[in-house]
Amino acid sequence: MSTILHIDPSVNGENSKSRQLALKLIDRIKAADPSASVTSRALNANVAPALSGDVVGAYYTPADSRSDAQKALLANSDTLVGELQAADTVVIGVPMYNFAVPSTLKAWNDMVARVGVTFNYTENGPVGALTGKKAYLVVATGGVPVNSAYDFATPYMKQFLAFLGISDVTVVEASGFAVDAEKAMATAIANVEAAALPVAA
Q1: Distance between CA atoms of 59 and 169, rounded to whole angstroms?
Q2: Is-above-0.85 flag for pTM?
Q3: Which PANTHER family does this entry report, sorted A to Z (predicted)?
């Protein structure tokens, strides 16, 4: 049985286009693999708080040397990391806010990028520990075309996932909702339907 992790950083709840499209994609994946389970993680400031110096200090303290306070600080990060480690497929809604990712998605990245856990430093540079996973980025924008010169969200997320060892990444484009919402949704749904599904293990 495979596990799908859905990351939803949108502030728009049920009205979120990235969320709606990510769920359509997950439905496709589940239709092809009915035994797949889904873990849904909606992000907010409580789930993915901004990084602090104390948290970074706890990251770099050996696990057997951490204080109770440091362990408490890392409890939320440990949960998010565990969800990511357990997932075979990761579907991330990426609504573009002011040319980049939502602050909660950046915070999630900071919570799951753990030295010695999700990546390691080597003589040849950092090496990701989360290999063998498939990821989808459902990138929804108001007016900026995905993968254009003004899209700083898509390349950043691809680079971040590669940093963790997740190099098999499909981008599902959902551009232009502020320009022509009906056309944008129709095109985006077609892109969801055209996305290649994960290869069964």
Answers
A1: 27
A2: yes
A3: FMN-DEPENDENT NADH-AZOREDUCTASE 1, FMN-DEPENDENT NADH:QUINONE OXIDOREDUCTASE
